[in-house]
UniProtKB/TrEMBL annotation:
Residues 18-246 form the Radical SAM core domain. This is Pyruvate formate lyase-activating protein. Gene3D superfamilies: Aldolase class I. The lineage of its organism: Bacteria, Candidatus Roizmaniibacteriota. Transmembrane segments: none annotated. Keywords: 4Fe-4S, Iron, Iron-sulfur, Lyase, Metal-binding, Oxidoreductase, Pyruvate, S-adenosyl-L-methionine. GO terms for molecular function: 4 iron, 4 sulfur cluster binding; [formate-C-acetyltransferase]-activating enzyme activity; lyase activity; metal ion binding. Coiled coil: none annotated. Its cofactor is [4Fe-4S] cluster. Pfam families: Fer4_12 (PF13353).
Length: 257
């Protein structure tokens, strides 16, 4: 994989608390292979937009926040998100390789809609994988994202094999009322994750409408306007349905539900 001289970055959040352990600098990459109807960062989907950085420039920028992360990896570090950072694989590799040399705790937030080659290339430098599962049923996944989930599920299994039992993957599941919280969908999700061996936790993310203004500005319409947001009751109902799986359940910013 040839190194990329420049990467396209949407924005940098300096004191993130929801995307990995501790206080984190969250780098939002431009570009995404999916087209999720509920995306709250829809302006990150478009490639080759935002600010341009070289790997060294971006590394220098985020290391300015190091004093806020704490002394150990559990206290904080850098999360690469988006969009989906694997959409810029060469730049991602060059960036996190530099951070790894600086002993920075690295989280990759991704759908894994990428190639096994990309996963293998960045694998040695990632401390925690946060992988989003949109829906277990292929037709529903196509409706939600525009694409099949076959590659994603295959890649999750592939990553699980690479991790070899080390709990370094967190599966994130967006609770969309009436769509992803049905008994059928949750049972298929529970069956899938129960067969994995390298999960740190399952994170339930409530569907919100944070990105509506971005959709209206870019496209003039928000496709999920009629879908209700997920309340605490929705999350608790999903947690009860998943209570039997052998992993801790969490919501953003918490350890256990």
């Amino acid at each position: 994989m040839k190194p990329s001289k420049y990467g396209f970055i949407h924005s940098i959040e300096t004191l993130g608390t929801l995307d990995g352990p501790g206080l984190r600098t969250v780098v939002f990459f431009q570009g995404c292979p999916l087209r999720c109807k509920f995306c709250h960062n829809v302006d990150c989907v478009m490639p080759r937009c935002g600010s341009q950085y070289t790997p060294d420039q971006l590394c220098e920028r985020v290391l300015k926040n190091r004093e806020y992360w704490g002394a150990s990896g559990k206290d904080g570090g850098v999360t690469v998100s988006g969009g989906d950072p694997t959409y810029q694989p060469e730049f991602l590799l060059a960036f996190i390789r530099r951070l790894h040399k600086q002993n920075v705790h690295i989280v990759v937030d991704t759908s894994l809609m990428t190639s096994t080659k990309v996963i293998e290339s960045i694998f040695p430098f990632v401390d925690l994988w946060m992988v989003s599962v949109k829906h277990m049923e292929e037709k529903k996944h196509q409706y939600l994202t525009g694409f099949s989930n076959k590659r994603i599920l295959t890649n999750i299994r592939f990553l699980d094999t690479l991790l070899d039992g080390k709990p370094k993957s967190r599966i994130r599941y967006v609770v969309v009322p009436g769509i992803t919280d049905t008994v059928s969908a949750l049972r298929k999700f529970a069956d899938f994750v129960s067969k994995l061996s390298s999960i740190e936790s399952i994170e339930l993310l409530p569907y919100e409408r944070f990105g509506v203004h971005k959709w209206i500005e870019l496209y003039g319409v928000y496709p999920f306007q009629q879908v209700p947001i997920a309340t605490k009751n929705h999350i608790n109902a999903v947690a009860r349905e998943l209570a039997h799986i052998p992993y801790a359940l969490r919501t953003a910013g918490t350890v256990n539900i």
